[in-house]
Amino acid sequence: MIFDFSAAAAIVFSICLLPIYITAAKPAIPQGTQKLRFGKNGEFKILQVADMHFADGKTTRCLDVLPSQYPSCTDLNTTAFVERMILAEKPNLIVFTGDNIFGFDATDAAKSMDAAFAPAIASNIPWVAVLGNHDQESTLSREGVMKHVAGMKNTLSKVNPSEVHIIDGFGNYNLEVEGVEGTVFENKSVLNLYFLDSGDYSTVPSIYGYDWIKPSQQLWFQRTSLRLRKEYMHEPVPQKTPAPGLVYFHIPLPEYASFDKSNFTGVRQEGISSASVNSGFFTTLVEAGDVKAVFVGHDHLNDFCGKLAGINLCYAGGFGYHAYGKAGWWRRSRVVVASLEKTEKGWGDVKSIKTWKRRDDQHLTGIDGQVLWSKSFHGKEHNGGGS
Ligand SMILES: *[C@@H]1O[C@H](CO)[C@@H](O)[C@H](O)[C@H]1NC(C)=O
Ligand SMILES: *[C@@H]1O[C@H](CO)[C@@H](O)[C@H](O)[C@H]1NC(C)=O
Ligand SMILES: *[C@@H]1O[C@H](CO)[C@@H](O)[C@H](O)[C@H]1NC(C)=O
User: Fold this and answer.
1) Could you name the CATH architecture of 5-383?
2) Which of 263, 268, 286, 305 to mutate to test ligand 3, by most ligand atoms within 8 A of the CB atom?
3) Rounded to two decimals, what is the model's pTM?
4) Nearest to residue 117, comparing CAs of 88, 75, 149, 77?
5) Closest Cα to atom 5, ligand 1: which residue?
6) Where are the domains of the chain?
7) pLDDT digits (tens, 9 = 90+) for 240-256
8) How far is the CA of 341 from the centre of ligand 2 (A)?
9) SS3 267
10) Which residues contact 296 (CB under 8 A, 6 or more apart)?
């Protein structure tokens, strides 16, 4: 198939590489609430850190770096990359999408997590984490890991939603991002974030491979999405279309295999390691109608975004140095920014959602900028990405 350059060119926009300031970002949330809010600049920015694979810190060596890089490379390089990304982007929220620690090589799971999340905590920026398939391989169970995470400073992570009594996994929760203070959207969630536990390995003997998002979790997602849609479309200031949603978890859905380089942005350098069965969660997302993009990790050498049935399926690309990678192919991180519409009465609802990545090179080079979703002027949705 011939590469459609005009469509690709339309989705790429230049990335402004800001200088790196050495100032701590202001905490975006009052203590003790689960609410986030758009800033006075009408933007909400999320930094995704996938697969840190943190273990014992300075004694844990890097994997798959160039021969010349081995002697000076440890987990501390992962820490330095987190710090650099935070300073460069000043996000409103940091999301760690699993395999935060590499349990097999972590002597003490709690200590590894404390070290792995330390740069996020030090930044005073709210942060959350979900579990991957390696987080429980050290001294704590999946429940133990998630309980530890949820108890850490500045995190909005939850072990599980309080309104649900039975749900599979640990680390299923949602966050609501309200409009700018002083505008008509100040009490409405204009951007919805969902976090799910995609599990580790199948426990069903006849099904091999990785785990999947279970019916109990999908039901919780459906109910939460429905509640948020109703609230958004009702008084005060009822809206005609639902607020956009973004979903974060670890293991890709089988639908990530729907693309090739003619219809994704980024690279695919390895297979799609999803579960060997299809849980139907993609269909659930399409049916709910509010979700515009899904963000996962797990496959460190894939970093693309492709759009299927109106939903962008995105990888972040591998971040951690004690994770498999490809020597000479930079570790990377994904940024998403939602921008509000500017109206005569101040900031309105979400107008567009953009993404880019930065490589851990000397300049933190920004790559693959693209519009994931945008709302037309009259409130009609249209595809921001390629067709
Ligand atoms: C790891 O960090 C050390 C110390 O700052 C640095 O010299 C080295 O270049 C880094 N390695 C990589 C692969 O970034
Ligand atoms: C938002 O809620 C606060 C507190 O209840 C209220 O004072 C304010 O008027 C509300 N704003 C709007 C736009 O409804
Ligand atoms: C991407 O393009 C390939 C052909 O190159 C096609 O088989 C596939 O269905 C396309 N995927 C989507 C999601 O459009």
Assistant:
1) 4-Layer Sandwich (3.60)
2) 263
3) 0.91
4) 149
5) 77
6) 5-383
7) 999 999 999 999 999 99
8) 20
9) coil
10) 50, 97, 198, 248, 249, 250, 251, 252, 253, 256, 313, 314, 315, 316
